[in-house]
Each structure stands twice: as structure tokens, then as C-alpha cells.
Design goal:
19 strands; about 475 residues; 6-stranded mixed beta sheet; 2 domains; Rossmann fold; globular; single chain; alpha/beta; 14 helices
């Protein structure tokens, strides 16, 4: 009989009254490396956290490497997002901190973070992992200023220093550019040869070559588990906009569009400690234009957007105009945010997870991280319309922490759209969404732009995610811009 590394028998997990995993049976043998796919909300992340001992479950989990009571100590999960603490042991960061030099100084460096996991016993192995994952050049970088690709490599290094028998990676390719994804595929291939078993939660189009088997979850049920050579990716589901054109127009009309130029940058240059992030950027976005902003991880996209959203203090040292008015001429950050709808991976990371889905969406009406006001009947009805549009009806009063990453992103997208913003800035908006909801969101953005003079700035590493309405392009490379308009 073939040896078993890990076996799940009739594993069921409930969160509150909701059944998330339903009688899961899965067997992993030594030498196998698995991928788990499924739509947003299918239970993939809950499965990962259950293996790591974070959820109570019924049924049985057996392993060859430890007792049933302690096996989870040998299973490490690499999360989609890296949450860390600063030098005062606080983890309640806010988005603007990454652009403030003082706050960066209060954040641990990569070397300081790794020192928590390196011991005399694993020092030699640590040196090998640090070299393999290309961490040496990052040692003095503050954690808060790492790019997505750098952050992912650091997460992997920390996980490997814990000497896992099973390494679970939750959507590891999310937020990585083309080169970053290719590098990660290569790294996973090397890890797979070291005796560590890999389990990837990923999409059908991001199966690493080292994966030997694929399992599919659907609404908490394991639908199939087959060798990778036999796996056939499902046809993407098509989701039509669940409202009429007239209804959509009534809830997405643009307010406060009394300007001609949404964004104007004149010879904008940003640097930190002598390192240039943006160099001599000249860019103008007129009212009603739809732009794509692209570039590799670390090219300067987040810094560029931070100058627009009012989150970067270096905006005052440059010639930047927002809504026909120069920054620093007396406007407040709230004057900017009132006209701007914004969502990004960083906002997702730093958002208040104690808020319910309803509260998170409603907070967009007031540009706050949390709901601190009583809604009018009209505002409440508008929130419910957006909840329905994003197909989150069943999660209306669930805390964000109980939603899947994809459902959380849908809620934050609704938050960005609910106040009819004149300027819509969408930074990797489909990150964490399955193919069907990505297609739904592209339809929604195209419909909004068709019905209103919304000005759009859209950032994505995936050309296929960019809405059809986009016809102007800015590409960043090492902080320099190439514009096609």
C-alpha cells in the first residue's frame, strides 16, 4: 500500500451557522504536489487555515509526520497578504505610512524581520534560502516599502525557515508581474525537490510545472481530484450584470465633475534617500478620459497613484494639479477624496476587518475606513443596490474577516463606486477575483464609463483585465513614463 503523507476524511468546517467545507476527502502521498482551484468563496482559504490549525472541524486529518493533535505545527501557510508589526510592536498600519520617511524608519527591515526566524541550528539553511529567493539585496529595506514581488519572496523565506513538511501558498501569484510570476514558478520548482510538499491555492491558468495533482472546490464541496496531466480547466462562467441599464445609470451617475483636467503632472520627480522612484513625469488626464497605467513591480505605479489620491506628502514639492487646482494651494485632502473613488491591494491590506460587508461599502459615502454615521433611507437603499450588484446579498452583515479574499475585494470595489466619483482609480481591482467575477467587473466599469463622463485610471498586470473603454496608456519603467494616447 502506498504511503500517505496527509489524509482528510469527511472534514467539515462551519463558521457560525454557515458550512464552509462539506465532507472533504483528500489524500496526498509523498512526492506529490497539489493545487486547489475554485471560484471566489468556494472555501479554498478556509481549507488552508484548517490544515494550519486555525479552524475547528469535524472529521479526521491524519499525517505521517505528526500526531493528530500537533500535525498543524508542521504545516505553514503563506498568506495572500503579508501583515507585520513595526518596531513598537504595532500592526495597525495605515496606507499613507509607506510614503512617509519617518514612518518607514519605524518599520523593521527585512534583516530584522528574518532575525526572528534564524537560529544557530538553521543558519546554514537560512543562507541557502535567502540566496535562492534573492533576498540578500533587500536586507536593509523597510518592510512597508517592499514591492509585491519582494514581499512574496520574503514571505516564502520566513515560511521555509520554519521547516514545514507541508507548505501551503494562498494565491501566491496575485499581484506579481509577468517576470515575477515566472521567477516564482522557478523557485517553487526548486522547493519541490527539497522534500517539502507544496499545496498551492491558485487559478487554473497559474499551475506551476511542479504540480502533480489538482483538486477543485465548489461551494465547499470537493468536486474532483485528479493528476495534473488529466486536469481540464473549466470554461469560465459568464455572469451578466444583474441590473437593467436604466437602474445601473441611476446608481452610477457622476457627481462633482466641475473641472476640465483631472490630473496634471509637470516634470514630477520623487526620490527617497537618493533613490529615484519617479523621474521627470509629464502627464495630463482630462475629464472623461480612460487611462491604463502599467509597469513591472517596483516601477513606481503605487507612488504615482499616491500623488493623485493625496496620500504622498512629496506631492507638495512637485507641480501637480488635481481637478484644475494645484496641490498645496489651500485644498484639503478631503476635497480630493470627495471626488475620487479608489481601491488598491494596499487599501485592502490596511482596511478595518471588524467592519461588516454593509458597513465597508457604506463607508465609501464618507471616505472613512469604517461607518461612523447613521445613513438616510436613500443612502441605505443605495448600499443594498451595490451589495446586490456585486452578488454579496448572502454576506451583507458578515464581518469582512468571514468573507473570502475575492468577496472582500468586491465589497471594497463597491465602496469605491458608491459615491459616484468623478475620478475612479482602480489599482489591480481584480486581484483575488475568479474569472467570472473579473469579467463581471470589466462589464461594470465599461457600463459606468458608457453612461457617464467618469474619468478612469486603471492599473493591471494583465492586459486581458483592462476594460474595453480604456484607450490611453501610460507605461512606467524604472520610474520613467512612456505615454500612448
Amino acid at each position: 500500500m502506498q504511503e500517505i503523507l496527509l489524509q482528510l476524511e469527511q472534514v467539515t468546517v462551519k463558521l457560525g451557522a454557515q458550512k464552509i467545507l462539506d465532507n472533504i476527502d483528500l489524500t496526498i502521498h509523498p512526492g506529490e504536489h497539489w493545487a486547489v482551484t475554485g471560484q471566489s468563496g468556494s472555501g479554498k482559504t478556509v481549507l488552508a487555515h484548517t490544515l494550519a490549525g486555525r479552524h475547528f472541524f469535524s472529521g479526521h486529518i491524519h499525517t505521517s509526520f505528526d500526531a493528530p493533535e500537533t500535525f498543524h505545527h508542521s504545516i505553514v501557510v503563506v498568506e495572500q497578504q503579508h501583515r507585520f508589526k513595526d518596531l513598537t510592536n504595532r500592526s495597525d498600519f495605515y496606507y499613507q505610512q509607506r510614503f512617509n520617511s519617518f514612518d518607514a524608519e519605524q518599520t523593521a527591515t527585512v534583516a530584522q524581520e528574518l532575525s526572528n526566524y534564524i537560529t544557530p541550528a538553521n543558519e546554514a539553511a537560512a543562507a541557502q534560502w535567502i540566496s535562492l529567493l534573492q533576498i540578500n539585496s533587500l536586507m536593509e529595506e523597510p518592510l512597508i516599502q517592499l514591492s509585491n514581488g519582494e514581499n512574496k519572496r520574503l514571505q516564502l523565506t520566513i515560511a521555509l525557515l520554519q521547516e514545514p513538511r507541508l507548505l501551503v501558498l494562498d494565491n501566491p501569484f496575485v499581484g506579481l508581474d509577468v517576470d515575477g510570476r515566472q521567477i516564482l514558478h522557478q523557485i517553487l520548482g526548486k522547493i519541490s525537490t527539497t522534500g517539502i510538499t507544496l499545496l498551492l491555492i491558485t487559478t487554473p491558468d497559474q499551475l506551476s510545472p511542479c504540480i502533480t495533482h489538482v483538486a477543485t472546490l465548489e461551494k465547499g464541496v470537493l468536486m474532483n481530484a485528479v493528476p495534473a496531466a488529466q486536469y481540464k480547466a473549466p470554461e469560465p462562467e459568464t455572469i451578466a450584470l444583474p441590473v437593467s441599464s436604466a437602474t445601473l445609470q441611476s446608481i452610477t451617475g457622476v457627481a462633482d465633475a466641475d473641472f476640465m483636467t483631472a490630473i496634471k503632472m509637470v516634470d514630477v520627480t520623487i526620490q527617497y534617500e537618493g533613490k529615484y522612484i519617479l523621474q521627470h513625469i509629464d502627464w495630463q488626464v482630462n475629464r472623461g478620459e480612460r487611462w491604463s497605467v502599467s509597469g513591472a513591480n517596483g516601477a513606481g505605479k503605487s507612488t504615482l497613484l499616491s500623488l493623485i489620491t493625496g496620500d504622498n506628502p512629496q506631492a507638495y514639492a512637485n507641480e501637480i494639479y488635481l481637478f484644475d487646482r494645484r496641490r498645496g494651494s489651500g485644498e484639503s485632502i478631503w476635497d480630493i477624496k470627495k471626488k475620487t473613488g479608489y481601491v488598491s491591494p494596499e487599501m485592502h491590506l490596511y482596511f478595518d476587518y471588524t467592519a461588516t460587508c454593509f458597513q465597508a461599502i457604506a463607508s465609501g459615502l464618507f471616505d472613512t475606513i469604517g461607518l461612523f454615521r447613521i445613513l438616510t433611507a436613500e443612502q441605505e437603499a443605495l448600499v443594498y443596490q451595490w451589495i446586490s450588484l456585486m452578488q454579496l446579498d448572502a454576506k451583507t452583515h458578515h464581518g469582512l474577516s468571514r468573507l473570502s479574499a475575492g468577496e472582500q475585494r468586491l465589497a471594497l470595489l463597491a465602496r469605491a463606486l458608491i459615491k459616484h466619483p468623478a475620478l475612479l482609480i482602480l489599482d489591480e481591482p481584480c486581484q483575488g477575483l475568479d474569472a467570472a467575477h473579473t469579467q463581471l467587473f470589466r462589464q461594470l466599469v465599461d457600463a459606468i464609463c458608457a453612461h457617464s463622463p467618469t474619468t478612469l485610471v486603471y492599473v493591471s498586470h494583465y492586459r486581458s483585465e483592462i476594460p474595453a473603454c480604456v484607450d490611453k496608456f501610460l507605461h512606467l519603467e524604472k520610474g520613467k513614463a512612456t505615454i500612448t494616447a
